[in-house]
Model the fold of this input.
Amino acid sequence: MNNLFPECGKWFRGNLHMHTTCSDGKLSQEQALQIYREAGYDFVAMTDHWVQNRSITSANGMLVMDGIELDNGGHNPIYHILGVGMEREISLDRSAKLEPQQMINAVREAGGLAILAHPMWSVTDPQDVMGLAGLCGTEIYNTVSGLPWNGDRADSSAYIDIWALKGKMMRCLAGDDSHFYNGEQTRSYVMVKANECTLPALKKALLAGDFYASQGPRFRAIRVGGGRVEVECSGAKTVVFNSNT
Done:
């Protein structure tokens, strides 16, 4: 059986979706980073709306990646695209007329990874996403999209099942989308297996799919072969395996 995760490397914990007073968050960058640093995170991306926060090589032991959240405002349907790990300034003007592919392309042209944010919260039409190219993945869970901060739209797993059924395999990430810092922070995260906690190594691992989304359980191996799936993980009360059968 083949292990879906590489044998070499270390696991690093990160949050790729959070906001500060640079846009609509309640805490300053320094305050928000301190929360995640004290929680033991290895890396984060500050993804303020239409504000490209620059990378910090190390913020007292925690890597801070370039981050931004792009959106098309009051456009219907609405799309929010996260940009992570950019190497250059994104060249794109804010407009409600923006199409999602334009935002994805702008992130990629700046050397970043593009992530479809909270499709369930956005009530995204699954069919519209089928034609999008260049996404690193999508958020399967977005903490602040759930109660008590928003209506109960945190879980986007049904979207991922629909796309898979139609032949579009979307990699799954989880993020807090922290705004209020009154309970949503440090709850949903991504675990990335990379050789080191550096921007190039993390981006390479994310592009390769060497990661998983979690709210607690830790995975050591997922093996697939011979019509079987074997999982090694920390203690879990229930394990649910989703498929199209």
Remarks:
- The chain has a mean pLDDT of 94.
- The CA atoms of residues 71 and 79 lie 6 Å apart.
- The chain has six helices and 13 strands.
- The longest helix spans residues 29-38.
